[in-house]
């Protein structure tokens, strides 16, 4: 089955959309994602079953790497702040540069000074 075949356009694609959105409507998010994985594997194995082990090994490799990256993200301090930042930054063209803290970098020292002054002002109001 190819992307431009009649089987894909008139049978596989509409059926996949219908089942996926039906599962989402029933609030079965994990089931909907699982169905997409199954449908994708079915599609590629329909074309040539010999490629299925390659796709499965790639899927497993990506899953392992993704989980390891997720575990590293969980070790970050202030995860809630980082998640809020990433959500807000997604709508903008933001470029971050890591600067080693407290090493005499002028902008970093200025930020530290502003943060300390603001923290002292908040403490005074409490």
Measured by DSSP, the beta-strand proportion falls in under 5%
Quote the average pLDDT: 85
Helical segment tally?
Answer: 5
- Structural classification: mainly alpha
- Global shape: elongated
Report the count of strand segments.
Answer: 0
Order of helices and strands: HHHHH
User: Uncertain regions: pLDDT < 50 for 5+ in a row?
Assistant: none
Query: Main beta sheet: strand number and arrangement?
Result: none
Oligomer type = single chain
Separation of the first and last Cα atoms? 67 Å
The portion of residues assigned to helices is over 70%
Overview of this protein structure:
Helix 1 runs antiparallel to helix 2. This protein has five helices and no strands. It is an all-alpha fold.
Write the layout of secondary structure elements.
Layout (H helix, E strand, L loop, with lengths): L5 H20 L3 H19 L4 H23 L4 H11 L16 H20 L1
């Amino acid at each position: 089955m190819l992307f431009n075949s009649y089987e894909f356009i008139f049978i596989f694609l509409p059926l996949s959309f219908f089942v996926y959105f039906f599962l989402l409507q029933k609030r079965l998010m994990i089931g909907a994602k699982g169905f997409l994985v199954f449908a994708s594997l079915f599609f590629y194995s329909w074309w040539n079953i010999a490629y299925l082990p390659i796709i499965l090994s790639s899927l497993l490799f990506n899953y392992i790497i993704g989980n390891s990256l997720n575990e590293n993200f969980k070790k970050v301090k202030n995860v809630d702040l980082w998640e809020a930042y990433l959500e807000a930054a997604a709508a903008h063209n933001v470029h971050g540069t890591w600067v080693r803290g407290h090493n005499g970098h002028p902008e970093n020292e200025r930020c530290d000074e502003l943060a300390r002054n603001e923290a002292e002002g908040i403490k005074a109001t409490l």
